[in-house]
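Letters spell out the chain; backbone shape is given numerically. Both lines appear below:
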Amino acid sequence: MKAISINVFQRLSKVVYWQTVICAFLSLFSSNAIGQTPDVSQSGGVLVRNGGGIRGIVAESEDKSTGICSITPTLGGLIQLDAENVKQTTVLRKEQIEYRKFASLQPDSVQAQLKVAKWAADKKLSALADAHYQRVVELDPENAEARRYLQHVKVNGQWVSKKEKREQLGLVRMNGRDVSKQEAELLEKDATNKEATRYWNKEIRALYSNARSGDMSQRDALRSVRNPLALPAVAHYFQSEKDPEGRILLIQVMSSIGTPTALSELGRIALHDPDPDARAAAVEGIYRKRLAADDAIEYFRKSLRSSDEPAEINNAAYALERLMAESAIPDLINALVTYHKRQVFVGTEQTGASFDSSGHISGFSPGPSGKMKTEEVTSPNESVHKALVTIVKAKYPSPVDFGYDVDAWIRWKRGVDQLANFYPRRDR
C-alpha cells in the first residue's frame, strides 16, 4: 500500500480534515470491530485523542523535535500523525518486531512451533514462548521438551501443570514452597500479625510520647487501646521505663487490653516488681477484669504454695486480699509462717574475697576459723496475716484472729467448715 504522509505543520483550519484522515485509517488498519478501541499495549501501535487507535509498529524517531509519529500498520503502508493528536504510544521491542515478521510465516508443525518457541524463550519473550510450547503439546501431547518448559508433570498417567498438581494434593504455593491450606492460612495470619505489630509499635510510640508530654487526649487514647497486638510494644516500654508515673500508665494500658497474656504480665508485675506502687496498680488492673478473677486467684495461690521468697509470698497475699479470694484461705493459713533455708557464714575470719566489675565484693570463701552453714530462717508473713484476717471478716459472720498460730487457724477452719481434713502444712 502506498505510504501516506501528512504535513504536521498545517494550520488549525485543516484540523477537521486530518481528523477525517485519521478516522479513515482507523477503520482501514485496525483489526477491531467498528466502534472498538484496539488494545495496543501488547501488539504495539497508538491511541489517538479523538478516539480509536491504530495497531502497528511505531517508529522510534531519533529526532523528537519533529513532532511526527510514524506507524507502519499491521496491513502495511505508512501513517504519519501529528504527535499532539496521539494519546498513547506503545513501541515494540526489536525482538517483538522480529517475531511478527517471521513467526506468522512458520508452518503449524511440531518442529516449526518448537523453533519459534525456543527463539522466543531465548529472547525473553516468555508469553510468546508459552503460547508456542502450548501449541506443541496440542500437536504432540508427549513432547518432553515442551512439557519440561511448561513445568508439566504426570499424575496418574495424566499430564498436569504444577499448579493443578498442587490443587489435587490440597496444597498452595506460598513464599516459594508448597504448603497445606491450613499452613498457608497460618502464614497469612502471621504475616498480617507482623504487619499489625509494626503498626502498633509506631502507634504506641507516638501515643506514649505525646501522653508523657502532657497531652491528656493522647493519654486517654492510650488507655483506650484494646488490640492484643499492641501488648508487646506496651510491655517493651514498661520494661525500659524508669519514671513511676509512666510505668503506672502502661500498666493501665495492659489492663485495658485485658487478654490472658496481658493479665499474666500484670500478675508477674504484681509478684516481682520492686516498686510497691507498680505492684498495687497491677493488682488493681487484674481486679478490674472480674471475668479473669478465678484464673488470677489460682495464679497467686500457686505462689503461696510454692514460693521460697517471703517478698513474693507477701505480694501474692496482697493480691488475694484485693480479690477477696475466699478459696485462698487454706493457702493463706499455710503461708502465715514460712521457713526458708539460707546460707550463712559462721566464724571470724574470711579469705578469698571476689569482686564484681564495679569493685564491690561479690563473694568470699571462709577462712581457717570460719565456714558456710545452711540454717532455717522463720518468716512470719505480715501481708499474709492481714489478707487472712480481712477475707475472714468479709466472708464469715464471726470474725476471728489467731495471729500467727497456724494450728489455731487450722482448728478454726475445720470447725466452721466441718472439714475432716485440711490442706497439708508447708512445714510438714
Observations:
- The first helix runs from residue 15 to 29.
- The longest strand covers residues 337-346.
- The radius of gyration is 42 Å.
- Confidence is low (pLDDT under 50) at residues 1-35, 357-362.
